[in-house]
Design brief:
Order of helices and strands: HHHEEEEHEHEEHE
Number of helices: 6
Distance between the termini: 15 Å
CATH topology of the largest domain: Nucleoside Triphosphate Pyrophosphohydrolase
Number of strands: 8
Number of domains: 2
CATH class of the largest domain: Alpha Beta
Structural class: alpha+beta
Strand content: 25-35%
Largest sheet: 8 strands, mixed
CATH architecture of the largest domain: Alpha-Beta Complex
Radius of gyration: 19 Å
Shape: elongated
Helix content: 25-40%
């Protein structure tokens, strides 16, 4: 499944506009870059059916040179089962994780996300994969370019405790996975985490 051309073009036009608005000083150039951003907003609104005002507000939050966003996910195992949490936002299951936070390393982010979303403590022991959302996803397109970091983690303590973002916490066997939140994780990705857990010598995967 690949992103439609309109989304690829809109992302690139937005990136050009944001770069120009960051570095340009001539007022005429700034006006041109503002116009480019408006075109990107219109393209994305028309293609996605989302209100232009919402997309414009989203784009205006980003300042500086445009770079991909970073998402971290932790694969925590107990015997032959993997830890999943159920998202309140859509009711489906995923590996614990979320956006990387400022002033925290990727390892710190994924360990914090695991504890906050599941109640368990875990230690990241291996970076298993760095995957591009656009190349890996099986869900609806996203307005941002995203890199997803997947870590194999060792369970160190805690107990199941849902959070403000999650409604349930459970360990599942690979052949008995619940319905997944595909915008966050796919069955194939979970399958690869099992492979990395079983064979720690496997090299980190990347797109």
């Amino acid at each position: 499944m690949t992103d439609p051309n309109w989304l690829l073009w809109a992302r690139e036009v937005q990136a050009i506009a944001q770069t120009g608005l960051t570095f340009a000083s001539d007022r005429y150039d700034l006006e041109r870059y503002q116009r480019l951003r408006a075109i990107a907003v219109a393209m994305m609104a028309a293609g996605s059916g989302t209100a232009a005002e919402r997309i414009s507000a989203l784009f205006e939050q980003d300042l500086g040179y445009p770079t991909p966003k970073v998402d971290v996910r932790g694969a925590v195992f107990q015997e032959q089962r993997i830890l999943l949490v159920r998202e309140i936002s859509d009711g489906f299951w995923t590996l614990p994780g979320g956006w990387g936070d400022v002033n925290q390393s990727p390892r710190e982010c994924v360990e914090r996300e695991i504890q906050e979303e599941s109640g368990f403590q875990a230690r990241a022991v291996k970076l298993a994969a760095v995957w591009d959302y656009r190349r890996q996803r099986q869900a609806a397109s996203h307005p941002y370019s995203i890199y997803k970091f997947f870590f194999i983690c060792e369970l160190t303590g805690g107990e199941a405790s849902p959070s403000l973002e999650t409604s349930a916490v459970e360990f599942f066997e690979l052949d008995r996975l619940p319905e997944l939140s595909l915008g966050r994780v796919t069955p194939d990705q979970i399958g690869r985490m099992y492979e990395h857990w079983r064979d720690p010598e496997l090299m980190t995967e990347f797109d």
